[in-house]
Every structure is written in structure tokens, then in C-alpha cells.
Amino acid sequence: MHDIIVAGAGPGGTTAAKNLARRGFSVLILEKNPIPRDKPCGGWITPSVLELIEWDEKKLDEIFWSPIKGLSIYSPSLFSFTMKREKILSYGILREQFDHALLTDALSEGATVNADEAVKNVIVKDEKVIVQTKKNDYTCRLIIGADGTRSKVAECTKVRPAWTSSEIVLDLVSETKVPKKMIRDFYKDDLAFIFYNKGGGYNWIYPKINQKYDDACVNIGVGCQLSKIKNSRQMYQEHVQNLKQINLLPESITLAKSTGWTYATLLGPKKRTYGDRVLLVGDAGGFSSNIAGEGIRTAIITGKLAAESISSVPDFSKTSLKSYEKAWKRLLKTEYDIGKVLQQTLTREMDSIDNILKKLRDDIQGQEDLVKLLIASDDLAEVFGRLARKLL
Ligand SMILES: Cc1cc2nc3c(=O)[nH]c(=O)nc-3n(C[C@H](O)[C@H](O)[C@H](O)COP(=O)(O)OP(=O)(O)OC[C@H]3O[C@@H](n4cnc5c(N)ncnc54)[C@H](O)[C@@H]3O)c2cc1C
To answer: Is 83 within 8 Å of 370 (Cβ atoms)?
Structure first.
């Protein structure tokens, strides 16, 4: 019997596994896909993640690409302004590389992984959990559901209900290798670009460059509430055309195939993220930030908090594991509460988003606050209060 089984080797699962193995728990990770595995993503990582992952300079240099120091924001009518900062706003990563490095950390602390082995069923008994895959039945004392938005663990244990189409976002994203020269020619000043849509949601283009390894790519995506999308391929094509029109993409570029992916990033987590002998972390629990869709940071935070709770409770009953929910609420509840207000306001005021953004054109403090909001800075409540008084 394992102490803990973790379903899913994304950032949430591997962070939980690393922190548990380090504390002496026997940990088995079951991952549906062969590893290393890729994941459709923008690959935007805010600086606070650096403190959470404990990597040395060499590893950071290898895996953290292109520090971004500014954002160009476009309204639906393509009115735009650019916010620049001295401090780094974000780094670019490639998910295959980043996620594999996190998995390697977990394995070096003593966790084990079975790749290409999906969890098919979870049965919680009084004294243990039975975890079934096509190849095997495993037993453990507790299971962590880190198996993404469509979590099998959440479904089998009924910790939370399934998401409805108005609770999730559908994204379409492509990541295309390009010559480094193209990045220098088209995207000066270390900028990323965000486009707000009239129908809700936002699109992006995110250039990434790795100076050391002579690699570069552009990450292009569109995203919108699933229930509002009529034709996601068309949305993506229109975004690409817009980018060409405003000279953010060369006419002749051949883009990599785009991939669709859903995730619950509109409301924050549902009411319950724990049950008898089970915890949900990362996207399985709906932890992606509902301010800017950032889910890697919150997966890592909840993975870490899950490990801390597991190692500090007397038993794995629902009553004891409530400490996990209390812990993530202390750190993240303000962010989700602000995100909810923001989502409601954006839905209501979609027609006036042009006007809202125009108000910020010459307002340096307002722009700085918007950046802080998007990267979930630590004075979030204050920042949001200031912006709301100005803009809403
Ligand atoms: C298009 C797009 C762009 C995004 N851009 C960003 C961004 O730029 N920055 C950011 O911070 N966040 C971004 N996000 C969100 C981010 O990708 C997720 O929030 C993050 O990956 C969550 O990590 P996780 O470990 O919870 O889940 P995941 O990374 O999804 O990992 C879950 C793992 O579980 C495995 N799995 C699934 N089912 C099973 C099963 N039954 N048994 C075993 N294993 C299973 C999967 O194969 C996967 O490896 C984006 C999301 C999308 C869709």
C-alpha cells in the first residue's frame, strides 16, 4: 500500500508529490500520458512562482525564457496602449520542459511515477482508497486529484460536481518555432500582447526567446466562456488575421496546428476541494486564477498546501482535511473574490470595454495597477479598490 497516490503529473501533482516524498511519505504518481508530456498553454509564469519552485540559477536560466517587461493591451476596436515596467512581469516557459523539470524534482525526492497509466476509478473505503487503472488496482491511504479540469478523481469521489459550460473557458492555442530575428523585428521591448474581445474573453500573442539556446517561438491563443463560443476555429483565424493586419505577425508565417483545451477559470474553486481521503489540487479543484487565467502558480501553491495539510493532520477524514481548504482560502480567497467581481463586471460592461481601457491611456498609476492585478501582486485588494473606483 502506498501512503499517497497522486493522479496527474502536471505542476499541481508533481509539487504535491515532491513535498510529500520529502517528508517521508511513499508517493506514487499515475499519469495518463507518456512522459515528458506537453500541455496546451500560454506558458506565462509570474515572478512569484520562482520563489515556490526552489530552483538554482542554472536551472532557472535553462527553463525560464524571455523575461517580459511590458504589456500591450488592445480593446475590441483595437485601441491600444503599452505598459512598461522596470521589474519583470513574467517569464516564458515551454510546458513540456517546465513540467518535466518539476517531475524530476519529485522523483529525486523519492516519489515514483507510472506514465501512460490513467486513473479509471477511485473507491474510497473506511481504511484505504482503491485506485483502478487498466493495468492494475492500487491501494493508498489518500489520493490527490491533480488530474486537470476533467478530473476522474473529482468525478469518482464526488467531491465537486462537474463544471457547466458557463463555468469553463475554451482556449485554442498554438506554439510555433520561429527564427530569433523575427522576434527582434516584430516584438520590441520584451512585450506580450493581450486583446480583449467584445464577446467576452481574451486573445494573446506571446513571443518567447531563449538567448542561451538560440531558440524562439510565438504562442498565439484565443479564449472565451464555452457557452458563448459559436465557432472557436473562426475566432482563432480572425485573431491571426488581426495580428497580421497590425504587423504583429508576418503575412507569410506558417503556424503550428492549434489545440483546443478547456479549463475552469471563471469562478475560482467550487465549494468543496476535499473529502474523506481525497484532496483536489490545481485545475482539478478549479484553482486557476479568475483574474487572468493563470493556473500554474495556483496549481503549485495548492500542491504545496495539500502536502502541508496531509503531513499535519491526525487522520485523513473529511473533518481533518478541512485544514487544506482553510489554508488555500487564507492565501487565495481574496484573488478569487476579486476575480468574481471582475468577471461579472466584464460580462455586464462588455460593450464599454473600449471606454474602460481608454480611461487608462494616460493614467500611469492606473496602468501600473492593471499590471499588478494581472500578475496578482500581494496588495491585490488595495490595487483592485483603486482601479474599480476609477474605472467602474
Ligand atoms: C490554452 C491555455 C493557456 C493557458 N495559459 C496559461 C499561462 O500562460 N500561464 C498559466 O499560469 N496558466 C495557464 N493556463 C492554465 C494552466 O495550463 C493550468 O492551470 C495548469 O496546467 C494546471 O496544472 P495542473 O497540474 O492542475 O493540471 P495539468 O497541467 O492539466 O495536469 C494534469 C495532468 O493530469 C493528467 N491526467 C488527466 N487525467 C488523468 C487520469 N485520469 N489519470 C492520471 N492522469 C491524468 C494529464 O495528462 C496531465 O498531465 C492555460 C490554460 C490553457 C487551456
So the answer is: yes
CATH superfamily ID and name for 1-39+94-163+266-333:
FAD/NAD(P)-binding domain (3.50.50.60)
122 in contact with ligand 1, CB cutoff 6 A: no
Q: What is the DSSP string of 136-196?
A: -EEEEEEEEE-S-TT-HHHHHHTSSPPPPTTT-EEEEEEEEE--HHHHHHHSGGGEEEEEE
pLDDT of residue 350: 64
Of ligand 1's listed atoms, the one at least distance from the Cα of 172 is 1
Q: Is the CB of 391 under 6 A from ligand 1?
A: no
Centre of ligand 1 from the C-alpha of residue 214, in Å: 27
Which of 12-21, 102-111, 379-388 shows the lowest mean pLDDT across its residues? Answer: 379-388
CA of 281 to the centre of ligand 1 (A): 11
Q: State the DSSP H helix or E strand holding residue 265, giving kind and residue range, or none if neither.
A: none
Residue 215, C-alpha cell as written in the block? 531558440
pLDDT exceeds cutoff 70 at 76? yes
Residues 6+ apart with CB under 8 A from 102: 11, 14, 15, 18, 53
Query: What is the C-alpha to C-alpha distance for residues 223 and 241, in angstroms, rounded to an integer?
Result: 16
- Nearest C-alpha to atom 35 of ligand 1 is from which residue? 8
What is the rounded distance in angstroms from the CA atom of residue 353 to the CA atom of residue 49?
30
Which atom from ligand 1 is nearest to the alpha carbon of 263? 53
Length of the chain: 392
Please determine, looking at this structure, whether the domain spanning 44-93+164-263 carries the CATH number 3.30.9: yes
81, three cell numbers: 496602449
Atom of ligand 1 lying closest to residue 297 CA: 11
pLDDT tens by residue, 29-71: 999 999 999 999 999 999 999 989 999 988 888 899 888 999 9
* Helix, coil or strand: residue 282: helix
Q: How far is CA 343 from CA 160, 293, 294, 338, in A?
A: 22, 11, 14, 9
